[in-house]
Amino acid sequence: MEEALANRSHGEGVLFKVWSKIRNSPAWIVAIALFLRVSWIIIGHTYRFKTTDGNFSFGWEMGAIGASLASGHGFSNQFGVPTGPTA
Prior knowledge:
Number of strands: 0
Helix content: 55-70%
Structural class: mainly alpha
Number of helices: 3
Largest sheet: none
C-alpha cells in the first residue's frame, strides 16, 4: 500500500514538472494569447465597421485624410468634418 502511494506521489511530481515546463514555454503563452484575442474578436464583433460615422473607425485619422485625398480635397479634414488642411 505504501509503495503504491509512493509511486502515485512520484507520478504527480513528474506531471507537475512537465506541466510547469509547458505552461512557461513561449509557444504556450503565444497560443493562449492568440486564443484570447480571436475569442474577443468573435464575441465583441470588433471586425464590423460603423457606417454611421463615415467609417472613421476604419483608419481613424489617417483614413479620414485618405478619404479627403480621394475626394479631391487634399490633405485636410482629418477628423471627418471640414477642419482645413493638416499640419
